[in-house]
Specification:
The protein is mainly β. Among the domains are: 17-38 and 355-434, no CATH class; 459-613, Methylamine Dehydrogenase, Chain H (7 Propeller), CATH 2.130.10. 15% of the residues lie in helices and 42% in strands. It contains eight helices and 46 strands. The strands form twelve sheets. A six-stranded mixed β-sheet has the order 3-18-20-19-15-14. Strands 10-11-12-13-16-17 form a six-stranded antiparallel β-sheet, with no helix packed on it. The protein has a four-stranded antiparallel β-sheet with strand order 6-7-8-9, with no helix packed on it. Strand 25 (468-471) and strand 26 (474-481) form a beta hairpin. The longest helix has 26 residues, at 410-435.
């Protein structure tokens, strides 16, 4: 997802002389305070020099077109002096409010996962845990061999779950009964976990960092810490903590490949301190980042908010091996795609409307200023950034132009207004395709070694990780170019969607553009040499793009159906399961919808089966978090947690009629509802707690995850794990979890 901040101080539709003059005068006075509340996100020029000659930028006098171009390549600080000089000069660019520098949770608009491993998966390290002879489901992941964290894991013998502030390890006995092997309390708020043989890795947010001794050494305005704790679980009845790590910053995303967990954190920069870089705490001892060894990568841009993005490679099985890290000084890491050999970080280019307009005023009015006013502007521009921040310079320059405007006649004010608007429009037309452009940074990964790779860029913004895919030497990415990226855009301009193919050096080699004008991407699924793209406005167009020839991708077919699929999952190579919302002919969403798409003949795509359940307000965790979606082709099994609402007219929000795991039988041509497994305790009469999970409102008895081991289906909430026979769905066991 990308954040579209079109901050501006120039009112839309300003045409009268009076309003123009008044606006300039008022804006000049109020601009400084306004900026503190509505921070600007700008870019670079080169006139400042760090201590060892490394150059960086002050954007106040740099043409917008050059600023956009400068956002496409990384630079590197190799000394602390250079980094501190940069931060000192750009300190005024940082927000004064708490902001982690990151786009909202990547899973809020969760689309389909790329694959779902099923089987008796054996870990890469030797485990003393009993090997399960039964088939079992594993976490719904995007890339084979690249594990993803989850609130529930299983190895076929044990179920591991994050329950409130504890980790429960539950044994599934041979008679399918359940027994609690251990409950391990976690300081802080545990969020997700990994299991690798006899090692369990849990991460979360440390809520007590400010009370720990090391925090006295960190003069921060505000900080948060992400903990990573590694346990030896060779004895499941008595897990032993073997490593305790704390990373300054907020959790972004993570993956596990082999014996390494790669976790990304981001820490906002507020003001220069003696230790600006985010630190790592290991077993209570502070570990500082070695600038001489790793450096800090950055983009030479005065961001709205600076944040240190830290990429950490954590060894899971070797407790004596150091954590290796890379640090990036960015505004945000928006989305991440990870293959077995590379990590791809993305961010979106941006120039604010305010900057475009200021440049217009400088070009149109600047040559007409008196020598005195010109010198005033030069003095403002020449002031070091640590004396006058970029925002303060903007405010003062606006005051100069306000002084000039106030002395013009009515007719000259009108002409100046028209000339400025004409310049703004031309500038926007010239750079519009560059303004919303995703830059992709590749990082090669091999165990503890991480190496900065190539940089590429494509038009539009990326919805989420599933809009990206690596196959062989090619990287494929689907984007949406928004219609409202800037208020200077033509009101009649429609959004459109694209698919790009880049080579191993991230150079563009193939593209399909202008798909579904006026719509945006809701989900993407890459499967071998095809891409399936769902867009939506009133109906749900499903596009099939042939990627057999990377240099010549082609749209093979399109199918329009009511509603939309925010999640696509493969049934077989020729059939897709779509999960999303139903909608009426005007695009108003209704209940939950499951679809089966036959894509064997792209020229004749078919929705061969559908199942709708509930009315408006019906919801599912799986709409936001793909890991809640359980499917097995071999078992014809589909299980989705749902809260179903029904109303008399089928249009308005109704009452909750069902809350639990809905079980379906799925064949290549049919979807049949079987039953809903509920965790409601009837003796209580009602559910007490109301919580949030990835943006989804749920109760403590709402099912968050489902899995199977052999012929037993397990459902997990914050209250229970239940076991039901897959054949009859009869409940066979129930075990309370930690509270």
């Amino acid at each position: 997802m990308s954040t579209q901040n079109t901050r501006s101080i120039y009112p839309r539709g300003l045409t009268t002389v009076a309003s123009f003059a008044i606006f300039i005068l008022v804006a000049a006075v109020a601009f400084g305070a306004f900026l503190l509340m509505n921070m600007y996100q700008g870019e670079p020029v080169t006139n400042d020099t760090a201590s060892n000659g490394a150059s960086y930028s002050d954007p106040i006098a740099t043409p917008v077109a050059i600023q956009v171009a400068q956002q496409s390549s990384m630079k590197q600080f190799t000394s602390e002096d250079d980094l501190n000089a940069f931060l000192t000069d750009h300190e005024g660019s940082s927000s004064l409010t708490m902001n982690d520098g990151l786009v909202e949770d990547m899973e809020l608009s969760a689309p389909a996962a790329q694959s779902m491993g099923v089987g008796t998966a054996s870990p890469t390290t030797k485990s003393s845990a009993p090997d399960s002879t039964k088939g079992y489901s594993s976490t719904n992941i995007q890339v084979e061999g690249v594990d993803e964290c989850d609130v529930v894991k299983t190895d076929g013998t044990y179920i591991y779950t994050v329950t409130r502030n504890a980790i429960d390890i539950v044994k599934v006995n041979s008679d399918n009964s359940l027994s609690m092997s251990s409950t391990t309390s976690i300081d802080g708020n545990p969020q997700n976990l990994y299991v690798q043989g006899d090692r369990l890795v849990v991460y979360g947010t440390d809520t007590a960092y400010s009370t720990q001794p090391f925090y006295d050494l960190l003069p921060r305005q505000s900080s948060s810490f992400t903990f990573v704790k590694i346990f030896d679980i060779s004895d499941r009845t008595s897990p032993k903590k073997v490593r305790d790590l704390e990373f300054e910053g907020n959790y972004v995303d993570s993956r596990m490949i082999g014996d390494y967990v790669y976790i990304i954190t981001s820490n906002p920069f507020y003001a220069l301190t003696a230790m600006p870089l985010p630190v790592m705490i290991e077993d209570g001892n502070m570990v500082t980042y070695d600038m001489a060894q790793g450096g800090v990568y950055y983009l030479d841009i005065p961001y709205e908010n600076y944040a240190f993005t830290r990429v950490n490679a954590i060894p899971v099985t070797n407790d004596n091996q150091d954590v290796s890290s890379q640090i990036y000084l960015l505004n945000s890491t928006e989305n991440m795609y990870v293959s077995q050999t590379a990590m791809y970080l993305t961010y979106t280019k941006y120039v604010s409307d305010t900057q475009i307009q200021l440049e217009a005023m400088q070009e149109v009015l600047g040559p007409k200023l008196s020598a005195t006013l010109k010198q005033h502007i030069k003095d403002i521009e020449d002031a070091p950034p640590y004396v006058l921040s970029y925002y303060e310079k903007q405010s003062k320059i606006y005051q100069v132009y306000a002084q000039y405007i106030a002395g013009l006649s009515s007719s000259d004010q009108t002409k100046a207004n028209n000339d400025i608007q004409a310049y703004v429009k031309k500038t926007y037309v010239d750079i519009s395709k560059e303004l919303e452009k995703t830059v992709i940074q590749k990082v090669a990964i091999n165990g503890a070694t991480m190496t900065l790779g190539s940089t590429g860029e494509v038009t539009g913004h990326v919805l989420n990780q599933f809009s990206m895919d690596e196959q062989g030497d090619y990287f494929r990415v689907a984007t949406t170019k928004s219609s409202n990226w800037s208020r200077f855009a033509d009101a009649t301009t429609d959004s459109y969607n694209n698919l790009y193919v880049l080579d191993k050096n991230l150079k563009l080699v193939g593209k399909v553009e202008n798909l579904a004008k006026g719509e945006q991407i809701y989900s993407t699924r890459f499967m071998q040499n095809r891409a399936y793209i769902v867009t939506f406005k009133q109906t749900d167009p499903l596009f099939v793009v042939d990627l057999t020839s990377p240099t010549n991708p082609k749209v093979l077919g399109e199918l329009k159906v009511p509603g939309f699929s925010s999640y696509l999952h493969p049934y077989v190579d020729t059939t897709l399961i779509g999960f999303g919302k139903d909608a009426d002919q005007d695009g108003r969403t209704k209940g939950i919808k499951i679809s089966l798409f036959n894509v064997a003949d792209p020229s004749n795509l078919q929705e061969v089966a559908t199942y709708t359940i509930g009315d408006r307000g019906s919801d599912s965790i799986a709409l936001y978090d793909y890991k809640a979606f359980l499917f097995s082709k071999e078992k014809n099994l589909l299980v989705i947690p749902m809260t179903v609402r029904e109303s008399a007219d089928g249009i308005s929000y109704g009452s909750v009629t069902s809350n639990g795991a809905a079980v379906f039988t799925v064949t290549p041509t049919s979807i049949d509802y079987r039953a809903t497994i509920s965790h409601l305790d009837a003796s209580e009469g009602s559910v007490k707690e109301n919580n949030m999970f990835y943006g989804y409102s749920y109760y403590s008895t709402s099912v968050k995850r489902t899995l199977y081991i052999g012929d037993e289906l397990f459902t997990v909430s914050d209250r229970f794990i239940k076991a039901n026979d897959l054949g009859t769905l009869t409940e066979e066991a129930s075990l309370p979890l930690a509270s």
